[in-house]
Amino acid sequence: MYCHRCRTENPDYNNYCNKCGGLLVINQSKSSAEAWSSKTGSLVGGISIIIVGIAFLTHNIFHNFYNWWAIFLFIPVVVLIANIYNSYKKGRKINEAISSFLGAVIIAAIAILFLLNVALGALWPLILIAGGIAIILGTLGNKKSIS
Description:
It is built from four helices and no strands. It is mainly α. The protein has two domains: 1-29; 32-141.
């Protein structure tokens, strides 16, 4: 967002300009980013409905498919991937995309483990390891410069 007084670029979450302190005016018209966001929401909704249909179809065809419900875990994966793309289109920091990507990978991995009927008793420490990696990457990516 640009200041209308001094034309300095400011983060979208700022209410006041970093340079001159002027009040930042939010454009009320629907921007191309907002229009794309609504299109993305429709795509996510459509893909989610397809995933639900695949889950029920799989359950109806393969009666011994015990963990069919794990297909529903891919719905948040689709939402997180849409968030990655929206962050990229809006030019936001890479940290947002990395955290969404890690979340998508973790949820997809858990869904695949359930779909393949893998015994999770021996693999639960992987969740702790993944959580620790996510915290470390989030901490390293949020460094602020001192000036």
